[in-house]
Design goal:
three-stranded antiparallel beta sheet, 9 strands, two-stranded parallel ribbon, Fumarase C, Chain A, domain 2, Fumarase C, Chain B, domain 1, mainly alpha
Amino acid sequence: MKKTTHRTHHIVLDERPLSRSDVVAVARHHAPVTLSDHATNRIQAAHAVIEQIAAEGQKIYGVTTGFGHLSSVRIPREQQVELQHNLLRSHAAGVGEPLSQEITRAMMLLLAASLARGHSGVRVELVQKLLDLLNTGVCPLIPSRGSVGASGDLAPLAHLALVLIGEGEATYAGQTCTGAEALRLAGLSPISLREKEGLALINGTHLMEAIALLALSDIQSLVMTAEVACAMSIEGLMGSHIPFDERIHLRRNQHGQQVSAAHLRTLLRDSEINRSHQNCARVQDPYTLRCAPQVFGSVRDTLEFCSTIAERELSAVTDNPLVFPEDQAVLSGGNFHGQPLALALDTLAISLAHLASFSERRTYGLMGPHDWDEGGAPLFLTPNAGLNSGFMIVQYVAAALVNEIKMLAHPTSIDSIPTSAGMEDFVSMGVTSAHKLLRMLELAQQVIAIELLCAAQMLEFRKPLKPGAGVQLAYERVRSFILPLDHDRVMAPEIALLAREVKSGIFSTIE
């Protein structure tokens, strides 16, 4: 099992919803997870209802019937356990590169938490087996493609669940092996499923939710970093600080805008550069400087909305049918439908496109020409331009990245394709939305890294004047990785290095 120095959480599954920090702690830092007595009691109560239904032969979807369009087929008692195993095998039809370990671990936690709420009818042993996989470091190998985001993330969750019964593939201690071998190496044994348990394992929004929660944490960090990069560009381009005055933003009454303006004011405080051009001829700056709080603020507000949707799902049960032990009822519905998350993921994608495009326009502005610049900042931020091309192609790269991001921003959730012989006639495609959001996030981190790189270079031409205190700290962090450019050199490794640091979040805490 991977060792880490970040294990600060011990997650207990009980009546309380998980938090996003819980998911990150388990997914990325391998925090241990246990079941509370309260959860154990609720699980047992729901399972007793399913046992009674199975014994009496009542017609209940997925317990005594087939699945999807085959729900009209009655399954005799002696075949009901086989039905659950066959469900996992038939649905494990995913394709594509495997999910990352952190996404898989987040899925496992979310699935266990949903089952632990006591509305799925599974045994305590099944939930505990999921937690055993998490706590020992057994990680199912799950093909990333194949879910249409309704009736649950069926194919990915089936691949996850196969390992519980000693089938499929998994990784353990850095090696890939069969599910049976991974269990053996971890000191675990396979479980034999009972009525409804296969269905409960694969009905749910746990893949798209896992990606949404992890991406939200990274996007929020990126927004803070993008504001830092913007403040560096404002100072480098000798932009006015007046547009960030609190009085302006109070009159708009948009919360995110006010937060972004306050962050920019903090980053820009005590600027010698600003004092040096108080009486310059320019009256207004381009929108990518002047309207920064309005644009960043709208992204912040969108993130808050999408976070609310994703965090509501942290207390959800997205199985079907649901068991209500207090009423001795089993009700068939559609909580597995991913539409709430799909729309939120598509909205996040649009926000990322704005964030990256906004940054690239400032990078373009940093290239020059700077006709207004009395300090004589050179074209493409390089001494001896002509012999040296400086950051010319770095901006091209940012433009190419933004072009790809804009293409990926097209909403996936508007393109439903019916499945299951028309029984599942409108699906969310939320997992596709999630996958492309991850790709956009990676590209956007590179775009912001490029702005940091170029803005730091522009600040070389403002010396000996110092920028605002927060900008100075950001400049020093860039320079701890990347030296100033005084002649042409290969920039690709430096962009990659800075993008990794952006992803790590080290710039997001600067104030």
